[in-house]
Amino acid sequence: QVQLVESGGGLVQAGGSLRLSCAASGDIHGINAMGWYRQAPGRQRELVAHFTIGGSTDYAASLKGRFTISRDNAKNTVYLQMNSLKPEDTAVYLCNVFSRGYSYWGQGTQVTVSS
Fold this sequence. Notes:
single chain; seven-stranded mixed β-sheet
């Protein structure tokens, strides 16, 4: 089992920045990938950014480089730096890891961007 705890969400004005953190605990040795997804009301859950054990990353095309994923392996933590935030970025952001054939999800952290 892997437990994930997200933090860093909140209310910001358009153009502002937030940095999300996701700390993994439990059986962390089998983790193959870590990443961020988001789900806005009435929308499908979508990939924001994904970081693999091989160092590959994928970003949602709509982010246009505004978001950056990073990882601190020593702390078992993945981060999402979110810049130039737009109201359209408002969503629940969820951390996800893949380990030993299973996906694990955090409970999510709310990001709200005001106009």
